[in-house]
Amino acid sequence: MNPDTILHGKRVATLTLGCKVNQYETEGMRELLEAAGCQFVAFEEEADIYLVNTCSVTNIAERKSRQMLHKAKKRNPEAIVVAAGCYVQTVPQEVIEDLAVDLVIGNNHKKEIVEILDNYYKNYKSDNNAYECWNPTEEHTEYENMRVTHRTERVRAYVKIQDGCNQFCSYCIIPYVRGRIRSRQIPDVVTEVETLAEEGCKEIVLTGIHISSYGKDWDEASLHSSDLDGTQLLALIDRLCRIEGIARIRLGSLEPRIMTTSFMEALASYPKVCPHFHLSLQSACNETLRRMNRKYTIEEYKECCDRLRQVYDRPAITTDVIVGFPGETGEEFTETVKNLETLQLYEIHVFKYSSRRGTVAEKLDGQVSPEEKNRRSDILLALTARQKQAFEESFVGEEVEVLVEESVGEAFPDNTTDYPGKIYAGHTERYIRVETVSFEDLTDQMIKVCYSCRFHSET
Fold first, then answer.
1. What stretches in the chain show pLDDT beneath 50?
2. 251 vs 66: CA distance, rounded Å
3. Class of domain 11-132 (CATH, top level)
4. SS3 for 130?
5. Domain 156-392 in CATH: superfamily?
6. How far from each other are the two terminal CA atoms of the chain, in whole angstroms?
7. Cβ contacts of residue 15 below 8 Å, gap of 6+?
8. Phi, psi (5° rounding) for residue 247?
9. Taking a C-beta distance cutoff of 8 angstroms, is the pair 37, 44 a contact?
10. Whole-angstrom Cα distance, residue 377 to residue 372?
11. How many CB atoms lie within 10 A of CB 8?
12. Given this model, what pLDDT does residue 459 score?
């Protein structure tokens, strides 16, 4: 800690809205503030500084961001309320004019949080206007190098390796608020993961806005190509697999186009890479995919799944699907259901389309009613529940390896003996949740159990 900084002893409350990347960046800002001598309190408590890392992926996310900023100012009118992140980038003037906001920090300036707050206290706190610390029209051309060395979870850590997106899907605002793709240098990622391993972290999840593009910005020819060969991503994985103490590596959301046979075979050569893949889909109907400006067909997606199942034994394939996208007819939705039944994915995250201002999809004809979106969502939720159960049941009676994360309760709450057992929960490499009973503390351990879909016996 630095007792000389003006922030020393300030009470800070943070709140993160949105994705894992936002969560990672909030953790990075917290570490910087902690080093400056700040003390952290819950967002529900009175603080000197409220830091809200906002989201703008939907209009609802923006509304939630505004609500949290106003709630912070109401909790302590004398506090500094800081708005950071994507909502800020989307409508900077709206945020600056919001009377609940004192300080506005755009993406790619979060690593400067200490200097910005220090400058604000010295030069701007007496003003009645919000202070913005960046030019909203600037282009993000370099990766904002912010490191996280403390884990919010004991056994698993998210590691940001990339920012920005060049895809411009018709429903998405992210390329406009996050900018073009920018990749984190391999040595810096390695250093962070080595530190996490030294702290006892056993599993890392590589995350970013579009990690399939990792490293494309390092080569001018690659940057302007639509190909996703995964060369630099594989180079990074190769380095991370050599780090002692890291037992598992998971990958964030991947584009189907990166899943070539050569890429999959290369991944399979690294035993630490989990056979758990989130392949972005959004719709299982080609006409809908075309309106979404997705750059693959459902046939190509099926081929990816088939190749994965040839390389891996029962890989856990998950995806996202949007229902009620503008123009999605009943026939198109029926086609989506039929194709999803054929794909037999482990889990489908179902989202009801929400109009997002500033996107192409906002102006498309054929908006679907909320009632119909709800109906379609219910159908897919029932479908994915059945498929998830079938996938998990395929492992019944087999020995699986579980990374235990936490104790979730007493196994025998009415037991009066001196040996109270506890229920411990963790995940397999395919991210199947497992609970097991033990009289010993299993937290943070890798154990083998005989899988039975509920409680399990250690082998």
1. 1, 457, 459
2. 32
3. alpha beta
4. coil
5. tm_1862 like domain (3.80.30.20)
6. 47
7. 43, 50, 51, 52, 53, 68, 72
8. -95, -30
9. no
10. 8
11. 13
12. 46
Give the start-to-end residue ranges of the domains of the chain: 11-132, 156-392, 399-458
CA distance 65 to 51: 11
Which pLDDT does position 140 carry in this prediction? 62
Q: What is the pLDDT of residue 249?
A: 98
Quote the pLDDT of residue 129.
Answer: 61
- Starting at the edge strand found earlier in the chain, the sheet holding 156-163 runs 182-183, 156-163, 203-208, 248-251
Q: Which amino acid is at 210?
A: H
Assigned token pair, 393: 């049941």
17: alpha, beta or left? (left if phi > 0; alpha if psi -120 to 50): beta
For the whole prediction, is pTM greater than 0.85?
yes
What is the model's pLDDT at position 106? 85
**Which residues lie across from 407 on neighbouring strands?**
424
Compute the residue count for the chain: 459
Provide the 3-class DSSP secondary structure of residue 349.
strand
Annotate 309-330 with three-state secondary structure.
HHHCCCCEEEEEEEECCCCCCH
CB 288 within 8 A of CB 326: no
Coil, helix or strand for 12? strand
Q: Which residues of 319-344 are buried (b: 16+ CB within 10 A; e: fewer)?
A: bebbbbbbbbeeebbebbbebbeebe
> What pLDDT digit, counting tens, does each position of 245-262 carry?
999 999 999 999 999 999
d(C-alpha 383, C-alpha 381), whole Å: 5
Tell me how far apart the 2 most distant CA atoms of the chain are, in Å: 70
- From the number of C-beta atoms within 10 Å of its C-beta (0-12, 13-18, 19+), residue 90 rates as buried
Would you tell me how many other CB atoms lie within 10 Å of the CB of residue 30? 20
Rounded CA-CA distance 390/433 in Å is: 14
| Closest alpha carbon to 18 in 73, 79, 60, 72 | 60
Phi-psi category of 322—alpha, beta or left, where left has phi over 0 and alpha has psi -120 to 50? beta
Helix (H) or strand (E) holding 52: strand 49-54
CA distances from 64 to 77, 97, 193 (A): 19, 17, 33
Q: Which pLDDT does position 133 carry in this prediction? A: 65
